[in-house]
Amino acid sequence: MSESTVLSVQNLVLNIGENRLIDDISFEIKPAEIFALVGESGSGKSLTSLAIMRLLPEVITVDSGDIVLHQQNLFELPEYQMQKVRGKQVAMIFQEPMTSLNPVMKVGDQVSEVLKLHLGLKNSAARDKVVSLFEEVGIPQAKERYDWYPHQLSGGQKQRVMIAMALACEPDLLIADEPTTALDVTIQAQVLELLKSIRDKRGLSILFITHDMGVVYEMADTVAVMKQGKIIEQAEKEKFFNEASHPYTQKLLQDAVPKQKLKPQLDSTKLLELNDLKVHFPIKKGLFQRTVGMVKAVDGVSLIIEKGQTLALVGESGSGKSTIGQAILKLVNTTDGKVFYADLDSETISLTDLSERQMKPLRKNIQVIFQDPFSALNPRMTVSEIIREGMVSLKVGSQNKQDQDNRIDELLTQVGLEVDFKHRYPHEFSGGQRQRIGIARALAVEPELIICDEPTSALDVTVRAQVLELLESLQKQYQLSYLFITHDLSIIPAIAHKVAVMQNGKVVEQGTVEEIMHNPQHEYTQKLLNSAPQLIRKVMFA
Hints:
About 40% of the residues are buried. The chain folds into 2 domains: about 250 residues, 3-Layer(aba) Sandwich (Rossmann fold); about 260 residues, P-loop containing nucleotide triphosphate hydrolases (Rossmann fold, 3-Layer(aba) Sandwich), CATH 3.40.50. The strands form 4 sheets. It has a 6-stranded mixed beta sheet with strand order 6-7-8-3-9-10, sandwiched between helices. The chain is α/β, with parallel strands linked by helices. It has 22 helices and 19 strands. The model has no long low-confidence stretch (mean pLDDT about 90). Belongs to the ABC transporter superfamily. InterPro entries: AAA+_ATPase (IPR003593), ABC_transp_ATP-bind (IPR050319), ABC_transporter-like_ATP-bd (IPR003439), ABC_transporter-like_CS (IPR017871), Oligopep_ABC_C (IPR013563), P-loop_NTPase (IPR027417). GO terms for molecular function: ATP binding. Keywords: ATP-binding, Nucleotide-binding, Transport.
């Protein structure tokens, strides 16, 4: 290890009992270097970062190896000295800022706490330093935002607070663990640009943990790929993207951007039509909770979804995409407008006018796949019970238990799962497997339309590619229609026939995939496309 090296991980081995979790990994990070550690969930990336911070759970033991920060072996430090290293010399930002911030404490106080602990700053000095940090990371109205609580900030602003907290004591190394995974493409671009500018300004070294190759292409100086606890390939960025040698790395790069295949525009009949749909939520204030205004979540949206086709609904968080899906499903009360469904006897009857009793028979026709498959599946029910529930409650197919068991076996096979999985519970599966269970549950009631609400945003690139392929094959087999809600522009050509772009509750542009992706007319659409990582843009617009 040279004197100029900031961090050196040497032959690190971590075990839990007799199981090896991290298998003899070594790498070095130099001053002002962004070192990307890449791999799928479960490969050992986050575990490596916890080992550097010495925050490993007690059940995990360090079998061998060293972690050296500026010539100091961190494993040799007593805990009271390690506490001075955390936050002051090595800081960390996490994937989900909402769970990392104390919800009952003002964000400014949370950052000043770090300054008081490590630098001994008093109240007014700490406050002034926090405000200057908020300004540095681009939080608007920094003085006022100091006294806000986490729930009052957007996702991007919360992540900026976490970055400000990490930078508070001017550390030598910043560990960024999937810091942009939960963010919209425009916010992601801002956060990445912010991290690069801080690196340039402060000479900060960054260990950037991610599974997103687009982000790696944008950020990294050096890249290391992890698989099953081992580093299988390591190289400088240019060499990595041009000369990747390991088959697993090549597959990661191949899956980074879903296959760009424009779907032919077919003559198709209308299945669902939204006509000037509005969903407004009242803003209530004061002791008597008087209505003082309205949040226009959906504000006059008109869309058509055709049989056997996919309409992609694109936009940032808060644009109203998911609210449209909930309005179609009658999970929120609509303020105005109509939702016409082709299978209703009369074209003048809107789903919005139906009572719950009238709506129930139609629920089998319109199903939903949620963004987070874990919270969408009942943890106390087996896979078999989860899939069977819809068949029983909506009286779909044979009500004979053996026939239903046969149908469950058939559905599990269709979505690429083993039949024996039906006896297990959701916690026993990976994220991709849980999403397949969610798809099987939706298919069980033989729907015509499936609302896919960000179904791939929480998944690794290889699992995402598998789920998209599965949805496409099921569409061909059953002539399914999809309303595909997403903020990930790279998957649109792989899944959609048409695209609608939403901003602030309104559809600002809609058309075919080719029209929207290659000739966008609205400035907001152009901004979304320009915010996509360079690797994604290179492939999408090649």
